[in-house]
Structure formats: C-alpha cells, structure tokens
Amino acid sequence: MSKEEFPSEKDLPQEDQEKQAKAAEADKAGVKDDKEEVAKPADVELDQLKAEVAALTQKNKDLEDKYLRSQAEIQNAQRRYSKERANLVKYESQRLGKDILSSVDNLERALQVKADDEASRQLKKGIEMTLEGLVRALKDNGIEEIKADGEKFDPTLHQAVQSVPAENDEQKGHVVQVLQKGYVYKDRVLRPAMVVVAQ
Question: Is the full-model pTM beyond 0.70?
Fold first, then answer.
C-alpha cells in the first residue's frame, strides 16, 4: 500500500490531528476511570469488612461477658447450695428438739406434784428417769438449757413476761424468776426463756 492510501499524521489536516489527540486522551482517561471504578468498589468492600469485624468483635465481647456472668452465677448458686446443705446437716435435730421441749415441760410439771404414797413415789421416780433420759438425749444432740435465774436480762435469750420492783441496785435488770425454761440448739435459740425481770 502506498502512502497515499494511509497518510501520516503530518499529512492529516489539523482537525483530524486534534480529534486523534482527544481520542488518545480519552482512552488514557478511560483507563484511569476504569482503575478508579475498580478502586472504589474495593474501598467499599474493605469498609464493609471492617464494619463486620467490628460487629463480630463486639458480639464476641458481649458473649464473653455473658459467659463470665453465667459462670459467676453458677459459682454463687453452688456456694449457696453448699451453705444451705451445711446448715441442714448442722441443724438437723432442731425441729425434733423443738417438738420434744413440750414433753420435757410436761414431765417437769408432773415432778412438781407431791407424792404421798409409795405408788406415787415410784411413779415420780419413773418420771424423773424419763426426764433425765430426754434431757441427756437433747444435750447429746446439741440442745441445752438457757441459764436464766439470777442472770442479767438478755433479750436474745430471755423473754420478759413480767417485771417486779428490784430489792436492791444489784438486782436491777436481772432475772428473778423463770416461768418457762429456754433452750438453745448449738448457736440458735430454740425457745427463749420466759422470765420475770427486776426493774
């Protein structure tokens, strides 16, 4: 082919050269635009991934917090259970002891009745032996009588049902008479002593 069929850029008119230059620039710009378009979606995807990572990190922290709280609750429940179980074992005789106290009171009242004849004295002796056995059984199981007569009044151990004038200053605030015995079971008051207090 001859030059005439394909003229060189020099031979082209000025307008055609300008068009070619613009086309070349457009091609270059088009490549750049494509790169920018490719870059833009990558940035968006990166931002989405960062947001996902942040959300998952927060979710992980929340789950870890819930896990730690659950573990703490389980440990607290186990401690409570152990404490309650220890108390049940420690105070297992409390209810039985409380129920027996009324029988002890009745036996003590029976002993206050005068025995005039031999049969009555024998009966009284049997009651004394029964009472002694009960008191011993109570003591062996940790239930003991509260000392009250002549003691300083203690509202945690004594229940004042009556007060009388004190004969002297030393007697003030002290128990002068026990109307009903009180009992403690280990470190608990089963029944406070019903007393008369001097004021």
Answer: no
